[in-house]
Fold this sequence. Notes:
Elements: E1 2-7, H1 10-23, E2 28-33, H2 44-49, E3 57-58, H3 66-84, E4 88-92, H4 96-107, E5 112-115, H5 127-138, E6 141-144, H6 147-155, E7 162-164, H7 168-184, H8 188-196, E8 209-212, H9 216-219, H10 222-233, E9 239-242, H11 245-254, E10 261-264, H12 269-277, E11 281-284, H13 287-295, E12 300-302, E13 318-320, H14 325-332, H15 352-364
Parallel strand pairs: 1-2, 1-4, 2-3, 4-5, 5-6, 6-7, 8-9, 8-11, 9-10, 11-12, 12-13
Helix pairs in contact: 1-7, 1-15, 3-4, 4-5, 7-12, 10-14
Bound molecules: uridine-diphosphate-N-acetylglucosamine (UD1) and uridine-5'-diphosphate.
Amino acid sequence: MKLVTIIGARPQFIKAAPFSEVFRQHNTEILVHTGQHYDTNMSDIFFDELRIPKPDYHLGVGSASHGKQTAAMLAGIEEIILNEKPDGVLVYGDTNSTLAGALAASKLHVPVYHVEAGLRSYNQRMPEEQNRVLTDHLSTLLLCPTQTAVDNLKKEGITTGLLNVGDIMYDSVLRNIGLATAKYAHGEWLRQIQQDNASLPFLVEKGYYLATIHRAENTDDPVRLTTIFRAFRSLNKPVLLPLHPRTKKLVENLNLDLHNIHIIQPVGYLLMLFLTANANMVVTDSGGLQKEAYFLKTPCTTLRDQTEWVETLENAWNVLSPIEESTIITNVHRILTCLNHPQPRLFGDGNAAQKICDAVTRTER
Ligand code: UD1
Ligand code: UDP
């Protein structure tokens, strides 16, 4: 079988790694990088570390407004599909690259396979919600990470092509946590991040909060962004913040007080897994990181009003926090009763990549 796979943003590289490896054993994959993310530490670092095959096409679209960026991808992907004549197009997640891939394929009557189908925040203002709803409704195969995702789709009237394959990000964590530990244990993690931020204090395992912020709803509103930083300033442990370039630019403009906040460049996946596993808590608005925290049994506070990953809220492993200074502080300082609770297995068995491969190749026959 010949598949065109579309990737373009950081979380998609991480999802692509296990699938490409399994699929390419018996099939042909044409990998398309849209170029949505392009900094070395937002893109190349993942290809090197996770041994993702070199893309066959790189569209180099770069950053732009939603319309312009998506349109450039759409035009580029259409040409590739016409040229390659694949049996299907596979897309991951909910970025502009996802929607462009799904739309280009569906207009050419090529089957669309959506990995991470069925997630919903029910917040229509989120660009990701728009992308995932549209992509799901264009897809032939809806490869869901959880039973909740399957149920969400059924509520929208999608009843065929649904499959709960488990979460491919769980595959990635299981494959890589051992490597991450071998590479970064014994203080190597600290030496690594000190190279990036020489004024970093001495941090100890479980003695810091690991934070990331990049959602438009938080970054593009100066009041919300300032409130988050004011809360971080007052936390009882240092905050380690590998900062997305989008947020970095905005933080520089706001001239914020960075007391207790230690900004570093975005890091590679293995270091991120190590930092997550060894943080006292993760504080984030990232979708992927909420789950990684859960998989690695690190409590999480999510700086959003909704989450698509509702399973993580059980037993307060993850707590949603409104963007109010005192509420964020209270949530982060909460007593971690979750550590006494076992986690039910709600994200599959770590074999999502193989199940996706089986489903996609079965459909073709
Ligand atoms: C995108 C996805 C989001 C996902 C995130 C993962 C959309 C609508 N959003 O958000 O769902 O959670 O990726 O990280 O697709 N920039 C750089 N260098 C880069 C990439 C981006 O400097 O390599 C800066 C640019 O100023 C750019 C901004 O970040 O304008 C936003 O990038 P963009 O890809 O549009 O959205 P993300 O916020 O990264
Ligand atoms: N990540 C990383 N380095 C960082 C920040 C995040 O490797 O500095 C990884 C993180 O471990 C997770 C993925 O990037 O696997 C999440 O991507 P992001 O938060 O950008 O997007 P989202 O999941 O919110 O769409």
